[in-house]
Amino acid sequence: MHFLIGVAVAVGCGLAPWATAKLRTRWIAIAAGPFLIVVVAGAVFGLPLYPFSDVFVAAFSLLAGVALGRVMPPRFRPFVILLLILSALDVAQNFAFAGPAPPPGSAPDPHFVWFNVRFPLPNGHFNIGFADLVLIAAAAENLRRRKATLALSLLPGVIGISLGEALLSALAGNPPLFVDAIAASLVLFLTAGYALTELAVGQTASRAQSG
């Protein structure tokens, strides 16, 4: 169930750029503004609005991801460099702020819940940060602008979440702190997914030229 929800989230983020393809970037940025205000207010004041907070976090993340994908050059190298930098920062912050996970069934922190989208499960929860949602949508928009197919634009998020879930399921009960920080860094796996997708993009382009 954890894996299926992750793949569904990745697909949903990847579809956002295609759903907003005909909207101007200016209007997307304007639409993201009210959601950003609510998210910031919720995080600062700890507004106890979960699970409705997920709607605001997800909406802002998808709109911001599409906007980021549009302001970045529609090329592989600039975007993968951005992902590499953010991957290093993600691993570093996971290592610096690592701590014991909250017990299953515990109420989410009213402040930090505004930084994530959280799906409750019988044996815990599926949790994904807003920055991860932004980057999955941005990667899909980057590929869409490069004339990749819909299926290819979904691959970075699907591969990234699949790799992350596979590593988490393979880890022992108490892995070393640095290993745990890497496993918790979805940006790192998204970077791998984006790089692997580039191979598929190259093969598709080669076949089109041959045809």
Q: Give the CA-CA distance, first to last residue.
A: 41 Å
Could you estimate the helical fraction of the residues in percent? over 70%
How would you characterize the largest beta sheet? 2 strands, antiparallel
Helix tally equals 8
Could you say how many structural domains there are in total?
1
Strand content bin: 5-15%
Which class of secondary structure composition applies to the elements? mainly alpha
Q: Identify the strand order in the major beta sheet.
A: 1-2
Total E-strand runs = 2
Would you write up a description of this structure?
The protein has helices at residues 2-19, 25-45, 53-71, 76-96, 130-145, 150-170, 177-183, 186-210, and strands at residues 116-121, 124-129. The protein is mainly alpha-helical. The chain has one domain (2-210). A two-stranded antiparallel ribbon has the order 1-2. The protein is globular, with a radius of gyration of 17 Å. The mean pLDDT is 90.
Task: List the keywords.
single chain, 211 residues
